[in-house]
Design a protein that fits this description.
homodimer; alpha/beta; Aspartate Aminotransferase, domain 1; Aspartate Aminotransferase, domain 2; 7-stranded mixed sheet; 15 strands; 16% strand; globular
């Protein structure tokens, strides 16, 4: 069936405006490791998908899924050992005092639950988030997914801060002063809530600020911001849906980069390598306070199949040393992107950590005028050249690359070389 | 590992107050068809679990899951045929004009999305729900999950109506008058919203009123209620998470019992036989209005693996004639329960449709004093006798039985005989 027919069927069945990547959409039929294949047998290097964390269709994950699905799949109101084995293995990967978990199915559900927990624990409702973030799609979470402002409007309990970054920060402000500049915004947001008679519940941020375009966050920003939040009785919720599970290379979790331990952590996308698995990691006192007050049950959350899959992902991550790989290859890519920056004026800034990297494209290195249209053309050109990636950020001018974790130097060379060619041809 | 150790590990890892069935919890390790097995090899007849809809670990479903998970698992921003094949097969099972679908992962997400769609379409926010229902666990959906009143309090946009039923309806009111009595409550709820300056968005009910205790709804109630709602510009959202996919026997969907076609339908639990799969079926104009205004994307929703699983469930349902089976065996069980009612005064009422049936236990047939404590003992006694079921309803005195769909007359005989013995021994 042709692409046009698929698109027509899709629009009839799913409605208009369903997002589809690329001017010339890709019809994928198979995946393996860092590669995906279309219906014509063409191979693409996948530099975009963080959900198949340990690689598309990893045989150990598929085997764990199939074995448990053939054995038993129920819910957490019966006893089962896999949820305990997996949960203990998972929580052991976090800093004290984070030691309890609630399993859910999606990042949206994780952020929903974390905000509900924070509200109960603090007695507040005020949430501080960034002005260009994405955290999910429920009514409550859409309020903080500021990248797609909800047409319903944003409530007074939500306060947005500018996403902190060194590249587009205020002129002449650097280092410690820049960190204070952004942290002052957090303080102002708290004061604004208080002025409106609202109590702070939490600051909730993606610890690599993915949708914001992977800014280089000024050192000390998170520490100062969380100090303000805790002084006002609020909690720090780290959204680790994108940075988590070792993608950063240096650390298992994005928050560790800042040396600040959150009160609640939300997990999603990569956790089940594509299987709908997500969770909230919580300080035990916060978990207890919530559990003692609220009858919360999630039918699919923590079922034996999901937990078997989650456990297989952790085992592969360890056995294949994928976190080390993310660090080594990530550094290698950043070096390569910086070399490309010397050759191509369009590249204004190179950023990233581990296997989450990007380049901000600008029309002028001085004015930093965003090269939004050029970025769009480049993304489409890369797709035609067999490399899948996307773009992000406030001006949609940051190349977004988050490949599966078994991404090697050879794969990096292929991306860098293809980018070089596509930039020359642009 | 002993039960006590598992419970201790569980409380440490998951926090206190996680719901666990039975005074003597069950440690399950295997499932097959309508049977589950504990760690000691003991077999239990599963009369409770509707999630493994076509049977625990159905080989065709497991095979579809394993095959697609080994081939490709991505998201809906690439083209894929399985979402179209499955979506078209699924929507064809609904009455016109219901023809579009949005796939999500849980019933909570489905109800979240349906309410957001209804709010956009109508410009209202008011939701009418029952006073003893369950629809999910997000902040917005917890507002209508009135069986567990949210400690946050319930907003003014939520209006509850008494769950309609013939057994505990007002004295002496029957037939058409009883239907009008309950429908008048809907009208009053709408008037109440208007009096508070709020506009109606929708009535949202579980079409078999599961949590309410499976009441026999007075004929014509839904038709009259939906007339009131539509006259006020509101929509009818049918929550088919529990009654759907043929469980009712006579119909594929609970709403068909009333002869009223909803504007939006929400699906969940049985849809993926345990795989986290859910969805919203919508009138195309409502879907378009939403899609044209809101950037809604669900990372796991509609992925190729979930769709392959959903399709396998529909294929098994058809090939094994499980809807017919639900009707035939359901009628047989109701007959058997009515015979038990002659022998046991404790059974005040027998209710159900297809493979969702229950018996309301009362201390006195005249006063209908709920036998809550006796019901609890009976449920635990049944577990000890090797039959898993639960209880539900406003007084927790209704036996709740929703076995997997391949439930046969032999299985029914075993439940009825065990119930007979347990009632005598109570």
């Amino acid at each position: 069936m042709g692409i046009e027919d698929l698109i027509a069927r899709r629009e009839r069945l799913l409605g208009p405006g369903n997002p589809l990547f690329y001017e010339n959409p890709v019809h994928l039929v198979r995946g393996e490791g860092v590669w995906v294949f279309d219906a014509d047998g063409r191979r693409y290097l996948d530099c975009y998908n963080n959900v198949p964390h340990v690689g598309h269709c990893h045989p150990r994950v598929v085997e764990a899924l199939a074995r448990q699905a053939a054995t038993l799949n129920t819910h957490t109101r019966y006893l089962h050992e896999t949820i305990l084995d997996y949960g203990e293995q998972l929580t052991a990967m976090f800093d004290a005092p984070l030691s309890t978990v609630a399993f859910v199915c999606t990042g949206t559900e994780a952020n929903e639950l974390a905000m509900r927990m924070a509200n109960f624990y603090t007695g507040g409702t005020g949430i501080i988030c960034s002005n260009w973030g994405y955290h999910g799609n429920s009514a409550a979470v859409a309020q903080i997914s500021t990248i797609f402002p909800p047409p319903e409007g944003i409530g007074k309990h939500i306060r947005m801060i500018p996403s902190p970054g060194t590249y587009r920060g205020p002129d002449g402000v650097t280092g410690a002063a820049l960190a204070r500049h952004y942290a002052d915004e957090v303080k102002r947001a708290i004061d604004g809530l208080h002025a409106d008679g609202l109590r702070l519940s939490a600051i909730l941020v993606d610890t690599i600020f993915s949708s914001e375009g992977l800014p280089d966050v000024p050192p000390d920003f998170m520490r100062l911001a969380v100090e303000h939040v805790r002084n006002a009785g609020g909690l720090f919720i780290a959204d680790e849906v994108q940075p988590g599970f070792g993608r950063m290379g240096n650390h298992l979790w994005g928050y560790q980069h800042y040396g600040v331990v959150p009160d609640l952590v939300t997990l999603g996308k990569p956790m089940g390598n594509g299987h709908p698995l997500a969770g909230v990691i919580a300080r035990p006192d916060i978990m207890s306070a919530f559990r003692n007050q609220v009858m919360y049950f999630n039918t699919f959350g923590g079922n034996p199949v999901s937990c078997a899959v989650g456990k297989a992902v952790l085992d592969v991550l360890k056995d294949e040393r994928l976190v080390d790989n993310a660090r080594v290859v990530g550094d290698y890519v950043i070096g390569g992107l910086k070399r490309l920056q010397q050759k191509h004026d369009l590249i204004g800034d190179v950023r990233g950590r581990g296997l989450f990297f990007g380049a901000e494209l600008v029309r002028d290195g001085k004015t930093k005028e965003p090269a939004t249209e050029e970025t769009k053309r480049l993304v489409n050109s890369m797709r035609e050249r067999g490399v899948l990636l996307s773009r992000i950020g406030q001006y949609d001018n940051v190349l977004k690359m988050r490949p599966p974790m078994p991404f090697s130097r050879d794969h990096a060379d292929l991306v860098l070389q293809t980018l070089d060619e596509a930039l020359f041809a642009l």
